[in-house]
């Protein structure tokens, strides 16, 4: 076991004003699969106490070790549940945490994985291998973005500072340089977006991460509306997801196969089915969104829009355009 990980594991076993002996720590390490000598544990404890004033010992025999109750530090309580949580957090939160934050957590991630690897007497340790989050749809590979750009952007958002960006236009391929006031980040599958305002403008814009060629930190405070909420921005259609904030009542002709699927995973809480010429219709109140249209198009062999007529005409026009590319 790496000495750094071993010391972190020992440190994690110390509690506030609750004594534990070197022998008890050695036994706990052995239970986790690490055959460390008592002398090594004792040396590590002495070294930790020399480096961290919060690590204390008493005058008992055998010596008891603990964390001072007034200590401001908070240490990882390493056990099976905590280790599983950290292992899964490392996998699923890597794209949501600023790289600097993720780096600070690496010792915990490594220790948690080491704990799970060497805990052989509990089947729960295999949980991360028994559950997976699998995205729906065609999997796309994330864009390759430089670590410098990512770090600069996340730091600017965290510190609420402006950032100087070099941005490439999707249509012309030309690059523009400008000062940007960042206020949030949205991660949508493989794509990440920076939210904020162009210097001198008041409307919120979205910039696609992969088109940011370069980013330079600035000490200029970003002008941010303190009432701004990323979730509210998304709910109001800021990401192009919602077409209208009002709900939309739709009526679809559907096959029996789709009816069975919708019975298990409804379109809405007020969803209703009716027999229709040997098939079925479904009526539901849904968000007027891009995702609704993508779903209808993906189900074109199993669903046809009956109402509203405006949506029916839109879907029909899209399908006719698509067919034209095959002719």
Automatic annotation (TrEMBL):
Domain WYL stretches: 149-216
Coiled coil spans: none
InterPro entries per the UniProt record, alphabetical: CBASS_pafABC_assoc_protein (IPR051534), WCX_dom (IPR057727), WYL_dom (IPR026881)
Domain WCX per the UniProt entry, residue ranges: 248-319
Any Pfam family matching the protein: WCX
Protein name: WYL domain-containing protein
Organism encoding this protein: Vibrio porteresiae DSM 19223
